Amino acid sequence: MPERRPLSPQTLIFEKGYDPQRSEGAAVPPVFRTSTFIFKRAADGKRAFEIAYGLKARGAGESPALIYTRVNNPNSEIVEDRAVVWDGAEAAALFSSGMGAISSACLAFIRPGDVLFFSDPIYGGTEYLFRRLLPEYGVKTVPFPSGADEAALERLVAVHGAPRILFIESPANPTMELCDMAAARAVADRHATPGRPTLVLVDNTFLGPIFSRPLAHGADLVLYSATKFFGGHSDLVAGLAMGRAELVGACKVMRTILGSNSDPDTAWLIHRSLGTLQLRMEKQQESARTLVAMLRGHPRVARVYYPGLPEMGEAQVALWRRQCTGSGSLVSFDLHGGEAEAFRVLDAVRHMRLAVSLGGIETLVEHPWSMTHADMTPQEKRHAGFTDAMIRVSVGLEDPADLCDDLGRALDLV
Ligand SMILES: Cc1ncc(COP(=O)(O)O)c(C=O)c1O
């Protein structure tokens, strides 16, 4: 018999984590809308808590029992078992939001006196956590430019001390600049102390597991705002953390205590979206490429930002070839002009919707300077590489020709 080819993620996504025989044969998992779970015998309850609190080791093949929905729930577990198929992670933890995943993961591993490096620019909520909250708990947080190489990171270590966490968002929002994960890994390994490794955490929300697999490039944990492509329909808020079981286990302890678990209905919706994640992301990327080609040729557009484009610079293109398998469906561009011109375009589009967020099936446009990144000072924004002339587009599933007509016509009005 010829050796069997391993199943691809697009097949595994329908197979893992759910046994219909345990749910009356239901072809699709029901929503387990319950806050608590009944034990058959008192000894089962005792055992469940021994395992949940780490008082006793788990037996071979013994899975944690269901106790209480803040701890775990079948709908969350189905998503956790399935969502790992593209990243190739050992385990996943589902959260009530992307920020729930990011904050729980950081709090699981950082302690007062530690140093945390983070790529800059970064999502506003993460920025607030790092620049404002963590320093109040005695953590020193140090931004580094997204495009920094290994030598630049080492110079920061010399000034600020060795980091406990290197936190990367790649591509950066809204500049689409990639961050070198292998460089972060090398620095983390060089400065790890015995018993306390330095961790590389990567927010992979923009490219998703279809176009970027950080665990294969040295990350310890990959984090997602599942509100975006995993959910994919702009109708829920959720987050994911994935990686080695031991690290994900620590995130789950933090999740239980902070109360940042998802709820059964949201988990069920994410489970439903998983089967189309790859299809959606690939199709959205195809349409984004059509839009990028139109924008690059438009006389009102000064510059387009999209991973892998030559105008991102030679080092970025080389990194994109090494680190990514696609460019995704987020595109930023600068107009000739500033806020007034950008607002005229945003007010003139008819089919693209003026809203923040991204990764849904309908196209969204926004103005990073005054909306998603309003919390940064003008100097911080310029330093991070964008101005008030920039517009960001999250390309959805509408016909790309209609999208090009819509945006092209709005640009012609400027
Ligand atoms: C890159 C990135 N990371 C994290 C988040 C936070 O996710 P959530 O809104 O699900 O908490 C966002 C939200 O926009 C994001 O764009």
Care to describe what's here?
- The protein is α/β, with parallel strands linked by helices and 414 residues long.
- The protein folds into two domains: 10-34 and 69-274, Type I PLP-dependent aspartate aminotransferase-like (Major domain) (Aspartate Aminotransferase, domain 2); 278-412, Aspartate Aminotransferase, domain 1.
- It is built from 15 helices and twelve strands.
- Helix 3 (74-83) packs parallel to helix 10 (264-274) and helix 11 (277-296) runs parallel beside helix 15.
- The longest helix has 20 residues, at 277-296.
- The model has no long low-confidence stretch (mean pLDDT 96).
Q: What's the structural domain tally? A: 2
Q: What level of helicity do the residues show? A: 25-40%
Helix/strand order, N-terminal first: HHHEHEHEHEHEHEEHHHEHEHEEHEH
Overall CATH architecture of the largest domain: 3-Layer(aba) Sandwich
Instruction: Give the total of beta strands.
Output: 12
Termini separation comes to 66 Å
Instruction: Provide the low-confidence segments as ranges.
Output: none
Strand content: 5-15%
Average predicted local confidence, pLDDT? 96
CATH superfamily of the largest domain: Type I PLP-dependent aspartate aminotransferase-like (Major domain)
How many helices in DSSP terms?
Answer: 15
Largest sheet: 7 strands, mixed
Structural category: alpha/beta
Give me the side-by-side strand order of the main sheet.
1-7-6-5-4-2-3
Q: CATH class of the largest domain, please?
A: Alpha Beta
Fold-level CATH name of the largest domain? Aspartate Aminotransferase, domain 2
Question: What gyration radius follows from the Cα positions, in whole Å?
Answer: 22 Å
